[in-house]
Design goal:
The complex is a heterotrimer of chains A (140), B (103) and C (496).
Chain A lengths: L3 H26 L6 H4 L18 H16 L3 H7 L4 H25 L20 H7 L1
Chain B lengths: L5 H21 L3 H25 L5 H31 L13
Helix pairs in contact in B: 1-2, 2-3
Chain C lengths: L2 H10 L1 H19 L7 H22 L4 E3 L2 E3 L1 H22 L2 H5 L4 H20 L3 H19 L6 H32 L4 H10 L4 H18 L8 H8 L2 H26 L1 E4 L5 E3 L5 H20 L5 H21 L3 H32 L10 H4 L1 H15 L5 H15 L3 H27 L13 H19 L2 H11 L5
Antiparallel strand pairs in C: 1-2, 3-4
Helix pairs in contact in C: 2-3, 2-6, 3-4, 4-6, 4-12, 4-15, 4-21, 6-7, 6-12, 7-8, 7-12, 8-10, 8-11, 10-12, 11-12, 11-14, 12-14, 12-15, 13-14, 13-19, 14-15, 14-18, 14-19, 15-17, 15-18, 15-20, 15-21, 17-19, 17-20, 18-20
Classes of the chains: A mainly alpha (140), B mainly alpha (103), C mainly alpha (496).
């Protein structure tokens, strides 16, 4: 006689065993002849450039923060959506006020420029030591 | 035969709470401390939902859990923004290294 | 819940609704007129004025406390709302002449928005009688103040203050939430009245109750900066812009005390007899806990303040010590003690705001709050010197000032409750505090002015604001009847 959790336990056990057996079998059967080419990181056949451990751009982070807040606020709408009909117009108005406040927050972010994906300025190389055409001519 | 009851939820929540406190006390990285705080808040959430379910207190506990989830997200967002600001000024986020305010 | 009930609730919440509407108004104004920052303070002042009107008219209408769901509207809460509004007005005035804030004037819209956010949190906090609403409003207050503490991004100490504030704050509010969840499991409710009913009718698990209550106290103790949870106070007070420091030390602390009194005097008391004396519930003796915390708080605050050279930091420790004195009024378990708390808070607001304002004016000139900058200041800028002297004497609690009256009422309440030993300790603490307050006076008046001593010329606007703080300190020192009547009137009908 198994409880519900007993079934889950057996399931977990089987899952672990399945992976373990697969790995151990592969380890025993396969030949192991590593070369430099084989042990490098696979990047669609290209040669990898630089370390994969780079810092992400800070702009991702601001967008993620903004997303996080708005994403989670929506959780409050679920209980409201289930029950606003019971409260008539007041119930409806409460939800609308909430959404309007959220909208103002969104407008604020927009206006303050936090949603802009500010591109880094492209540095145009400036050439200082150009030999002027006139100088070349006078020499010749 | 194992019946999952209130006790099991409480055990899980106290383990989470203890882990949270442990993380806060031992970690020096501000982000890690924040993770500890999140663990604490979520352990309280488990308590709320479990009590509401097994104590027959109605749905209040589950709604409280929703409120706490939203608050936790807001708090995390503000905390991360502050940590980011700090990183711009100090170029480090370890709590014990940022210590200019002393007598 | 039907419609009439909801519209009634809206009627009870007029001050909060007014604050919220003005918060949104500031945001929208800042969005549309992005360049024009001059009008923002006036919108904020208008918001405070309108809210004050609603609060005062509610104060006149309400006779008995009105309990409605998660909130209770009574004169006790309205008294604290008046305090919060008055201190908000002064902080807005401070902001107008603060160089720190002017340096980041392009974000002034956010500054006032967050200030109104703090105000909304405090308003909800003093009204709430449900633990979960208390937690939510506490977080609203805290989240706004975390950002404000780090408002001046240019200075590194400001962002450090914000980090320390949010880490300590989040930990203690997390503890509080866990305590609330345990109380919820124990009693089946988060409403303070229901919790009280449960605690009176049955003997639940005493250990769990004590544990949960101590955890809840962690959240409150952090807000009022009581001793084991005070670590953030000096750092945040020093690092935050001075206007915000003043606001935190007065308004935020007032809201914290209102919350403390509500939780303890609704949830954790059993009887209140006709003479206004209360009895602690049997299951959890919080009176003893508060005695220990209060003595610890004021001793630590006063003794650490002795060797502070930064005036902001010194005032931070002094505000910790004052939290200790105020806790004495809470723990005597009588209406007399609560009246003493209300009176003390009114005077504490005036003198603390005054002291921070003068420190700010001088810091505007010199860029630091070090005590050596005050050498001979009493001669180079006599107006500020004399005003600071009055504020500091009042903070010590010496006779011709309002601070004396506040302390006197607390001591009378203590002696009436036969807690002579505690009263003696508090008195000795006051003597210790005299030393560090007088030290500033010594620097100002008995030390010769050096070349670095600033000559601070206050503008006429600044003089008027300062006089509006200092003159009441002197007037209420001799003619204190109105405040006492106000406080007594506010406490009428408070309780179960």
């Amino acid at each position: 006689m198994l409880t519900e959790f007993g079934k889950i336990f057996i399931f977990i056990l089987v899952a672990i065993l399945f992976v373990l057996i697969a790995f151990v079998m592969a380890k025993l059967v396969r030949p192991s002849r590593p070369t430099y080419e084989k042990s490098t990181i696979y990047e669609c056949g290209e040669e990898p450039i630089g370390s994969p451990w780079v810092q992400f751009n800070i702009r991702f982070y601001v967008v993620a923060l903004i997303f996080l807040i708005f994403d989670v606020e929506i959780v409050l709408l679920f209980p409201w959506a289930l029950s606003y009909q019971d409260y008539g117009f007041y119930g409806f108005a409460v939800g609308i006020i909430f959404l309007v406040v959220l909208g103002i927050g969104m407008a604020y972010e927009w206006r303050k420029g936090d949603l802009e994906w500010a591109r880094p300025k492209i540095q145009v190389p400036v050439l200082n030591n150009l030999i002027k055409r006139s100088e070349v001519k006078s020499e010749s | 035969m194992l019946q999952v009851g209130l006790q099991h939820f409480l055990i899980v929540s106290s383990i989470l709470f203890a882990l949270g406190i442990y993380g806060i006390v031992t970690r020096k990285n501000a982000i890690m401390v924040l993770m500890g705080i999140e663990l604490m808040l979520n352990s309280a959430n488990i308590n709320f939902v479990a009590f509401a379910r097994y104590g027959n207190f109605g749905l209040h506990g589950q709604i409280y859990a929703l409120f706490v989830i939203i608050l936790a997200a807001a708090e995390a967002a503000i905390a991360l923004a502050i940590v980011l600001n700090l990183y711009k000024t100090f170029a480090k986020i370890n709590v014990d290294e940022v210590n200019n305010l002393k007598e | 819940m039907d419609m009439t009930n909801l519209s009634e609730l809206v009627g009870l919440l007029t001050p909060e609704i007014s604050v919220s509407l003005f918060l949104v108004a500031i945001v929208i104004f800042d969005l549309i007129f992005n360049k024009d920052k001059k009008i923002l303070p006036f919108i904020a002042l208008a918001g405070v004025a309108v809210t004050l009107f609603f609060v005062v008219s509610q104060y006149g209408e309400i006779a008995e406390p009105i309990k409605s769901g998660m909130i209770t509207v009574d004169k006790f809460g309205l008294y604290f709302k008046v305090l919060i509004l008055i201190s908000t007005v002064f902080v807005i005035f401070f902001t107008l002449s603060s160089d720190e804030i002017k340096a980041s004037a392009d974000r002034l819209g956010e500054y006032y928005t967050l200030m109104f956010g703090m105000m909304l949190g405090m308003f909800m906090l003093v009204t709430a009688t449900d633990l979960i609403l208390i937690y939510l409003s506490l977080e609203l207050l805290s989240l706004s103040s975390y950002v404000l503490a780090g408002f001046t991004k240019l200075r590194s100490r400001s962002s450090e203050a914000a980090l320390k504030y949010i880490l300590y704050g989040a930990v203690s509010s997390g503890l509080m939430l866990f305590g609330i969840s345990l109380i919820y499991g124990l009693t089946g409710s988060t409403n303070l009245y229901a919790i009280n009913d449960y605690l009176l009718s049955s003997n639940g698990n005493v250990v769990i109750l004590a544990l949960a209550s101590v955890m809840i106290f962690a959240g409150i103790g952090y807000k009022i900066s009581a001793a084991p949870f005070h670590f953030w106070t000096p750092d945040v007070y020093e690092g935050a812009p001075i206007t915000i420091t003043a606001y935190l030390s007065v308004a935020s602390k007032a809201a914290g005390f209102a919350m403390l009194v509500r939780i303890l005097y609704i949830g954790y008391v059993s009887v209140s007899d006709a003479t206004g004396h209360w009895t602690v519930i049997e299951a959890f003796d919080w009176q003893m806990l508060l005695i220990v915390i209060s003595i610890f708080t004021m001793t630590l605050g006063n003794f650490t303040a002795l060797w502070q050279d930064n005036l902001k930091r010194m005032l931070a420790y002094s505000s910790i010590a004052h939290a200790g004195y105020l806790l004495l009024g809470v723990l005597v378990l009588s209406n007399q003690g609560l009246i003493a708390v209300l009176i003390y808070f009114f005077f504490y607001m005036l003198m603390n705001l005054g002291a921070f304002y003068i420190v700010m004016l001088i810091a505007n000139k010199t860029g630091s709050e070090n005590i050596n900058e005050y050498d001979g200041l009493g001669y180079t800028s006599p107006f500020l010197g004399v005003a600071l002297t009055i504020c500091l004497i009042s903070l010590t609690g010496l006779p011709p000032t309002a601070g004396f009256i506040g302390k006197l009422y607390i001591f009378i309440a203590l002696v009436d409750a036969k807690m002579i030993a505690v009263a003696v300790i508090a008195l000795l603490n006051s003597v210790v505090s005299l030393y560090y307050y007088v030290r500033v006076l010594k620097h100002m008046f008995l030390t010769k002015a050096t070349e670095t001593t600033p000559v601070v010329k206050a503008s006429s606007f600044e003089k008027i604001v300062l006089l509006a703080l200092v003159i009441p300190i002197l007037v209420f020192g001799v003619y204190f009847e109105p405040i006492i009547n106000f406080a007594k009137n506010s406490l009428a009908g408070f309780g179960l």
